[in-house]
User: What shape does this take?
Amino acid sequence: MDVEGKIIVITGAAGGIGEALAERFKSAGAKHLVIADLNLDGASAVAERVGGTAMRADVGQESDVKALVEATERDVGAIDLFCSNAGIATADNLAAPNDEWQLIWDVNVMAHVYAARHVVPLMVKRGGGYLLNTCSAAGLLNQIGGAAYGVTKHAAVGLGEWIAMTYAHQGIRVSLLCPQAVRTAMTSGEAMDNAGVAAAAADGMMEPATLAESVIEGLRDERFLILPHAEVATYMTRKSADYDRWIRGMNRFHQSIYADQSG
Ligand SMILES: NC(=O)c1ccc[n+]([C@@H]2O[C@H](COP(=O)([O-])OP(=O)(O)OC[C@H]3O[C@@H](n4cnc5c(N)ncnc54)[C@H](O)[C@@H]3O)[C@@H](O)[C@H]2O)c1
Assistant: This one.
């Protein structure tokens, strides 16, 4: 898909990766961008810069996602590309309270279900459409120091696979964006614990604008997995070639990260 001339919704677009996607899609000639976020002030500032429309939506609430799809289709036009991008990092470990696990499940997994539930039937009716779901390399390789983050991102990858294999013949294309560390509020040390950030950034911290460039390429090639950090493909190969060896290696990595953090 070439984003030129397309109507695009991006959730979690008040900052970070979503904001960078909005700016890059605008410069690539997108027709109209809907900037959705919990943070309406932030979304409005981005929308103003890209000449788009800001909408407040809590993606963990189905009614908000439904309203976002309906308002866009009614007031802007048929959605060509829905970028389900908002995500959070909570519930780092087994002791984290159930309500933290539920919140991250709602935001990192159910939000993709809600988006697909409300937009896919419309896209199928008109012959096709595109979903870009921001997952993470953590959805393929797990997350040191981030129990629920790794779990929910795996679930998001599983959902994306299911949507793609179920609807491909009806014109629904799906890409899953699976980066390692990107320089945003999430990796600033406040959202995710320092060990988690250190592990995710072992191969370096990518700038959001660099990531947006690889999204443009991945969408153009209609690749299912968009891997801005090329190493992730190698790590996946190693994981599937010898799962036990991979677990041992990840445990050593875990121990070295936590030894560094306490030292
Ligand atoms: N930054 C990274 O290193 C990295 C790596 C891999 C994947 N990701 C994923 O990329 C996506 C974007 O993350 P980011 O790094 O830009 O984070 P960020 O914290 O900079 O931005 C996330 C945005 O989502 C919004 N948001 C949070 N909860 C929401 C909700 N319930 N409803 C609507 N909006 C909500 C926030 O207000 C914020 O504007 C997330 O899914 C994240 O898991 C990030």
Q: What stands out?
A: The chain has a mean pLDDT of 96. The chain has one domain: 7-234. Residues 7-234 form a domain with the Rossmann fold fold (CATH 3.40.50.720). Residues 11-12, 14-18, 37-39, 42, 57-60, 85-88, 107, 134, 136, 179, 181-182, 184-187, 191, 200 surround nicotinamide-adenine-dinucleotide (CB under 6 Å).
